[in-house]
Amino acid sequence: MCGRYFFQMDRDNAYFFYDQVMHHDFPAFAQGEIFPTQNALILRARNDTIIADVMRWGLETTWGKRIINARMEGIGMKATFRPLLNHRCAIVANGFYEWQSVHAHKQKFYIHKQAQPLMYLAALYDQSRSFVIVTGAAKHTMAQVHPRTPIVMDETEMREYLGFQRDFIVANDALILERQ
């Protein structure tokens, strides 16, 4: 699961989309610790080009519930997500947060990639410009903190994902977990 993530815009780490985002008429987006319902920076493909955009985190369902994550297992079988499979986007993040229950207390962890200032989280969006983060079963060290994890990608994997050349793959063996 992914209930919050962190992103701070920096020219050094956002080199290929920084100029798009800093344009004077680019929509405002949240920075720092990002929560569901906030407008967030995303990347998506348009005519074989990666463009920056802003969308709201969380899909509003017809029964009035907000969904922030989508399990990759069986995602194509669920009526809520099936129409979104052709609407891929990537969430730009420095890291994300998870909580581990320890004796009726929740320990917060900040999770990021070693020696990489940015990571990209696989997501799907709808026509209302809202997105969900795609999650999978956690592996390696991540599984000790939480059973679910966002689909984390580096820049090359993100480009492949947006170009439909990469499926949902959990690869979280290089993640660093820091207690908060």
Question: Keywords, please?
Answer:
single chain; 180 residues; five-stranded antiparallel β-sheet; five-stranded mixed β-barrel; 9% helix; globular
Strand and helix map with partners:
Elements lengths: L3 E4 L10 H4 L10 E3 L4 E8 L2 E9 L1 E2 L5 E2 L1 E3 L16 E6 L1 E8 L2 E9 L5 E7 L4 E8 L4 H4 L2 E3 L1 E2 L1 H8 L12 E5 L1
Parallel strand pairs: 4-12, 7-12
Antiparallel strand pairs: 1-2, 1-9, 3-4, 3-8, 5-6, 8-11, 9-10, 10-15, 11-12, 11-14, 12-13
Give a short summary of the structure.
By secondary structure, the protein is mainly beta. It is built from three helices and 15 strands. The strands form three sheets. It has a five-stranded antiparallel β-sheet with strand order 2-1-9-10-15. A five-stranded mixed beta barrel has the order 3-4-12-11-8.
The general outline is globular
What is the H/E order? EHEEEEEEEEEEEHEEHE
Spatial strand order of the main sheet? 2-1-9-10-15
Number of strands: 15
* Class derived from helix and strand content: mainly beta
Helix content: under 10%
End-to-end gap: 18 Å
Poorly predicted sequence stretches spanning 5 or more consecutive residues: none
Radius of gyration: 16 Å
Q: Could you tell me the mean pLDDT?
A: 91
How many DSSP H or I helices?
3
- Tell me about the biggest sheet? 5 strands, antiparallel
What is the percentage of strand-forming residues?
Answer: 35-45%
